[in-house]
Amino acid sequence: MTWTAAEVASIVNGDLFADADRVVTAVCTDSRQVHAGDLFVAIVGEQFDGAEFAREAVAAGAALVLAQRRLEEPCIVVPDAVHALGQLARAHLRTLTGVTVIAITGSSGKTSTKDLVAQVLEGAGRTVAPVGSFNNEIGLPRTVLQADASTRFLVLEMGMRGGGQIAKLCRIAPPDISVVLNVGTAHAGVIGSRDDTARGKGEIISALHADGTAIINHDDGFAAYFRSLAPGATLEFGYDGAFVHASDIVLDDLARASFMLHIGDASVPVHLQLLGEHHVANALAAAAIAHLCGLDTAAIGAALSAADTRSHGRMERVELPNGVTLINDAYNANPESMRSALRALAMIGRNRRTWAVLGEMRELGESSMLEHDAIGRLAVRLDISHLVAIGRAGKIMHIAATNEGSWGDEAAHVDDVEAAVKFVTERWLPGDVVLVKASQSIHLERVAEALRVAGSRED
């Protein structure tokens, strides 16, 4: 990427207050990560104004600042820096030839699937994919801007918090392959009903050009609706009747799935390294994408079998020095992923003591009480040894578990992170398996880290 200040101003339709010939070679949104020649985009948030760090960015080497107000530093002024970031990403993508844009959405599994796709495609050409969950109007453009002329595959994760958001992301990066993994209850309190969620997710398919392909979950209840939106070809994955499907699924002692992968008439065994049977569906979606990108079935199976966990806080298993197995799945949670994680815990912890340290699942709206009640009851039905429920929503899980038959310290309610760590570390024993999970905003990664430190400490 090489743009003059004048070219940047033209792309974003901004007012230029700098030498028109000044050159930028990359885009950065964090003043702490600026390199020489960067365009620093000063994003304005609810709690911060990036323009306050403009001087720091220029001192670190930024050639130009894109801001929402006039600055003393060389700058371009626009009404909305986030919108301008998207414009820059779109303009950059237009300069790249030979790149296949793959867009992935779903109520759960987006990040895990994105990570699988990136690992499978790496053997076929330079692949760019986001780190973690860069799936909004800031993260997605940042990922697009990492691509260059050598990039063959650009893998993008698209999240939503309302209708029209995915369509907006697709205008920044028009997809060649669009994937809808599933439609669940995540963010029901923000988006509305599952029908509303399906309509929002469907925007990723409607954005395809006539030569693009929609990849659809054959087993999802909205599969027919998504087929109706596709302007061109469709390809389906699932457990039965789909072009890409799995058979003979078996879980090992760590809840890692082995299965036979079928792509049309070809088949190959796959042995996943990821924890939980729910990753089979993610692997099938990744296989469908790889098939469209030209990889043969044997190569797809081998790459899936070698793939590992790349994003922090997603079913990360750590064997602690004190003999405890810690599973950190604290990055995010919704009812579907919470159930999957509990089932994986029960499988991994067979003949061992198990702990489910759970926090609130956010943005469930009117269904919040029922969903938290159901999780508390499920923990008991799966014979989880100890449920430690945190916070106000945790109280609902605790009451549900008690009503289902867990007594004493089998089901406990604590007020905060510190109390949860204290409760577990005073009672855990070598051989125990501990799962930590909640919505991202609950910050249970602090519990996982504190348990990791406690389990590594030499007494």
Q: What would you note in describing this structure?
A:
The chain is of the alpha/beta class and 459 residues long. The chain has three domains: 3-80, MurE/MurF, N-terminal domain (Udp-n-acetylmuramoylalanyl-d-glutamate--2,6- Diaminopimelate Ligase, Chain: A, domain 1, 3-Layer(aba) Sandwich); 96-306, 3-Layer(aba) Sandwich (UDP-N-acetylmuramoyl-L-alanine:D-glutamate ligase), CATH 3.40.1190.10; 316-456, Mur ligase, C-terminal domain (Protein-Tyrosine Phosphatase, Chain A). It contains 16 helices and 22 strands. Helix 12 runs parallel beside helix 13 (368-381), helix 13 (368-381) packs across helix 14 (391-404) and helix 15 runs parallel beside helix 16 (445-456). The radius of gyration is 23 Å and the shape is globular. The mean pLDDT is 94.
